[in-house]
Amino acid sequence: MNREAVNYVRALKPSGMPSGESVLEEGREIGRKIKMKRSLFLEKNGYDTYEDYVRENIRKGKITWEIFMGLATLEEQKEAIKAAYEFNQRTGINLDTIEIIASQLMALPREYREKAAKPTSFVMNETEDWVNMQTAPIELIFADHHLASPNALETTINAVKAGSPRVGLVSQFFWGQPGFTDHRQHMIDFVKSIGIVSSKWDDHISVDSYMDDGFPGYAMDCVTYVGYALLEHYIIHDLCNTRYQTGLGGLLKEQKSRAAIPVAIHQLLSTEEQRAISYMNGSTVTQWEHDITANYGSSGEEIMFDCLVERKYKMGMALNTIAITERIAVPTAQALFDICSVGARAFEGAKYWEDMIDWSSMDELVDYLKTEGRLFFENTMNVLDEAGINIKDPLEIFMTLKKMNPNRFERTFHHRMNENGTLNPKYPTVLGRQTVDLREEIVADVKKRGVEENALKGKKVAVVSGDGHTYGLAVVDAVLSAMGADVINGGVDVDPPTALDLADEEGIKYIGISIHNGQGLDYARQILELAERRNRKYHIFMGGKLNAILPGDSVPTDVTDKINELGITATEDLYEQICMIRDTE
Ligand code: B12
């Protein structure tokens, strides 16, 4: 047993929590009183449940198409849902399902939203905003920023009232939310919300998750996807007696592991009563920014293979197609319809490929992931149990994991960690490997441009991510360290006051901020205002996705210049940042 792991988990053991079962029962009480709206989609097509629709698609060998959509305003969102229906009627394509991506502000109780830096997408305020979003017979799913957020109760109750067949996303439970620190109440409301969905078992409403938003999104090994899905299923299905499904895929690009992971989870967890896989997200990590039309090629072949996998293994795995603009900014409705068209046309050719494919090497990988995934899960349960965590109490388990640094999840629970704390995955994740390659590439480039080895020796730098994106932060940390700097990595979801606190505690004046959700300009203004009040000199630099939806606009604009005008060094180019740190006192 990995002692260091057990001691780390033991130190996270929560105290003074109510029993998970009592909180679940309170949730079920609330759920039993909720009357669910029957969706226009079910009404028009005569299905009792959305599950009946998916199972009919499986029988007919058809694909369940869906998109993620989060536009700038509620009005634009409602118009786009009507446009999706017109798209179906015009093309004959059955894009029958839309996952709603509202603003991440929805995750915060209202009283916290004013102060928070404003990311992209719209906010819902009244129950009617959920219930009346259905402006056409398209099935709407409310998942992101709902069930597992600090604002779990309001969002889950309204999602169920609106008849959402899936409510999520479990995996987002450890996400930090700007300015919100009452993690105890957050976990209680999260488990109570699971209770609400639990009360709708007979209506076939399930809790949904998305592996890539969760701990697997920080993993180096594909096995961790399967091991973690087993853990979520154990907590939600076995301990909370609630229907459980999960989506995945945004960070998975290599076809073989991308396909083998959902098949392994499906074969380990799906039953006649409950399918385990909800959707496969198009991959988002290898898109081109310099020629986005070319992304139709990489997406087209990926969707074709996803179609073949679904027809072969009949998981009812919906395909969530990702716009060719994913690398640039939140997609428009038209960009989403366009990629769905590409997918539907590619699918037409699937039947001609099927009998020519030998799936044996894929099935070998599936067996490997099932075996290793089970070992990962068993090791996780043993470490939790050995650390004194009550493994029969969903609330205690979630509260313990909530306190965990997401970057430590894999090395705490992986059953194949080396003595020196490293891991040699047989099937590494794409971003895990990409981050290592990028570090080497950038260091070599910086040196070629004349920056000497150890140019940053004696320089202490704090780096943080202003949201849940970590890979950019990991690259910046690794590159600055390679150039000799003493880097203090403050981790993810660090808001402006906490970033300055970290710097002050460490006596640091160089602060690097990685930011991606469109809140960069707000974040820059807030941190400069606070810095002024502290009357200390800081050199703040920023990178990542520096854009924002400016007042009156409906699509994000690049705000790098605006941030530079404020006095923060904003550029993607780490060479410039390194020179700035080297040349300033
Ligand atoms: C991976 C990813 C995720 C993963 C993150 C996993 C993880 N552990 O990090 C997951 C799935 C969890 C995720 C979630 C979300 N994401 Co995301 N994500 C991406 C994606 C695909 C890749 C980003 C990445 O890691 N790239 C690899 C790293 C190495 O590159 P990089 O970050 O660009 O960093 C480079 C440079 O920017 C620079 N750099 C980065 N930081 C810094 C800092 C400094 C100081 C400097 C000098 C340089 C620098 O150096 C790096 C090397 O060149 C991008 C789209 C894209 N292709 O870029 C969307 C994207 C950033 N995500 C987006 C959004 C909206 C979200 C969500 C809000 C969606 C939701 N569910 O509602 C959530 C929010 C999560 C959270 N809690 O904050 C949007 C942002 C929209 C916008 N700003 O216009 C994007 C653009 C996708 C899109 N088109 O909609 N995401």
Bound molecules: cobalamin
Task: Quickly name the level 1 CATH class of the largest domain.
Answer: Alpha Beta
Global outline = globular
Helix/strand/pairing category:
alpha/beta
Percent of sequence in beta strands: 5-15%
Domain module tally: 2
Question: Can you say what the CATH homologous superfamily of the largest domain is?
Answer: D-Lysine 5,6-aminomutase alpha subunit
Cα(first) to Cα(last) distance is 48 Å
> Could you estimate the helical fraction of the residues in percent?
40-55%
Low-confidence stretches: none
Largest sheet: 8 strands, parallel
Give the number of helices.
Answer: 22
CATH topology of the largest domain: the name is: TIM Barrel
Task: Give the name of the CATH architecture of the largest domain.
Answer: Alpha-Beta Barrel
- The overall average pLDDT, rounded, is 95
Evaluate the radius of gyration. Answer: 23 Å
Quantity of strands, as a count: 15
Describe the structure in your own words:
The structure is a single chain. With 585 residues, this protein is of the alpha/beta class. It has two domains: 3-361, TIM Barrel, CATH 3.20.20; 430-583, Cobalamin-binding domain (Rossmann fold, 3-Layer(aba) Sandwich), CATH 3.40.50.280. Helix content is 46%, strand content 10%. The strands form three sheets. Strands 3-2-1-8-7-6-5-4 form an eight-stranded parallel sheet. Strand 4, helix 8 and strand 5 (206-210) form a beta-alpha-beta unit. Helix 9 (223-239) crosses helix 14. The chain is globular and about 70 Å long. The structure holds cobalamin (B12). Residues 101, 104, 120, 144, 175, 212-213, 217-218, 250-251, 284-285, 287, 326-327, 329-330, 435, 438, 467-472, 475-476, 512-514, 516-518, 541-545, 547, 556, 572, 574, 577 line the site of cobalamin.
